[in-house]
Write a structure and sequence with these properties.
- The complex is a heterodimer of chains A (252) and B (196).
- In chain A, helix 3 (21-33) crosses helix 4.
- The radius of gyration of chain A is 21 Å and the shape is extended.
- In chain A, the strands form two sheets. Chain A has a four-stranded antiparallel beta sheet with strand order 1-2-3-6, with helices on one face. Chain A has a four-stranded antiparallel beta sheet with strand order 5-4-7-8, with no helix packed on it.
- Chain A is α+β, with helices and mostly antiparallel strands and 252 residues long.
- Chain A is 32% helix and 21% strand.
- Chain A has two domains: 3-71, Anti-sigma factor, zinc-finger domain (Arc Repressor Mutant, subunit A, Orthogonal Bundle); 92-248, no CATH class.
- With 196 residues, chain B is mainly alpha-helical.
- Chain B folds into two domains: 1-104, Orthogonal Bundle (Rna Polymerase Sigma Factor, Chain: A); 106-196, Orthogonal Bundle (Arc Repressor Mutant, subunit A).
- Chain B is globular, with a radius of gyration of 17 Å.
- The chains are: A alpha+beta (252), B mainly alpha (196).
Chain lengths: 252, 196
Amino acid sequence: MTADELHTLTGAYVLDALETDEEREAVERHLAQCDTCAHEVRELSETTARLGLAVAAPVDPALRAEVLRRITDVRQLPPATRPFGRTPGGPQGLRRLPRWALAASVAGLVALGGVAGWQYERAEEADRRAAVAEERAEAVAAVLAAPDARVSTARLADGAVGTLVHSPSLDRAVFAAAGMPAPPPGKVYQLWYDDSGTMRPAGLMTPGAATSAVLLEGPANRSAGIGITVEPEGGSPRPTSDPVATMAMPEA
Amino acid sequence: MREHARVGGGPVPDRGDGLPELMDRVARGDQEAFAGVFDRVSGPVLGVVRSVLRDPAQSEEVAQEVMVDLWRSAARYRPDRGSVLNWALTLAHRRAVDRVRSEQAASDRARRVALLDHSPAYDEVTEEVESRLDRERVRRCLRGLTERQRQSVTLAYYRGLTYREVAELLSLPLGTVKTRMRDGLIRLRDCLGVTA
């Protein structure tokens, strides 16, 4: 799509009337690079809010009571820390990082790309993901948020960037990769702890996702680092190939 | 930036006097402040969701999810990107539209068309809502649009149709619908005096 065509879509965009996610993402990428368009989208979006205000409906007090009851059990997300509308053309995979991982990007170690801002995101997608992997997410978040979390990043092969976070107090580690090429068909990326040269299985990276933050399975403190290999689907008890990447545990 | 929402009634526990201030407190876990936000935005949220989904029970369920989501992600709200109300309604509209489209599966287009077999969406509002002034103003500005513009905007916003669905329904070329959506909203924006 040309810039002009994308610009024409600002109306359909704020009305949630685009046909596909791809189309929406194309518009959002364009917005990140076009201040005039982003401004127009803000104004048109506020205009749709007036359309919404005009159909306001009375809310049942029972609904109010229920929501106020529910929120007492709902944990709040931390603020997003990423910059607005930066790095056009940045690695697209990055935006698939779960939002809590973005938020906890631990002092911005993970560079973030290609998203125009919260208004234009689909919070509910993140919710769905979070719901699916809530427990794991909680554990990942706990590691990222641990006061003693140590972080290192490394450039992996093919321009991918890996971030390793280790919390000695939790004895756990989280690995996040951005921009990794998809594994060959029928293969997965498997994570390993490096226990003084012995590779201990530490779980699989989300199949099909170019980017993901993974809680490594098992204790982290006794390992000197981690490795990633390409393994047959389902993973292997032992590495069957040379690592495509290795990282040392971050220093304190 | 104006905040119009006063729907839902009830006193707003007040330290700050506006929604952004309340949101700021909500972001820090203030449940009382959230009740204030709820009272100001839940009416429009429910209205938008119901307008798209139509089914009252389902609408209440989705509106509830949206409100809980506002609590959950309060710290993500950025005043420089738009009003609290807009943020809430953006979430509400998307959630409603997603619900409709996920249920809709291609076979269910007929239901969709049946839904459309109503008078214009914006006329179906109950009279007892407190935002009558806002509603009158919007209605007046909608009348200032061309018919194509008005249909394109309202079918998308109030019914959750995609531009392709609008184009099919109105037998217009896709490009025309895209353009009408944009220039219709621009005209509405100017009529309503919206700035951002």
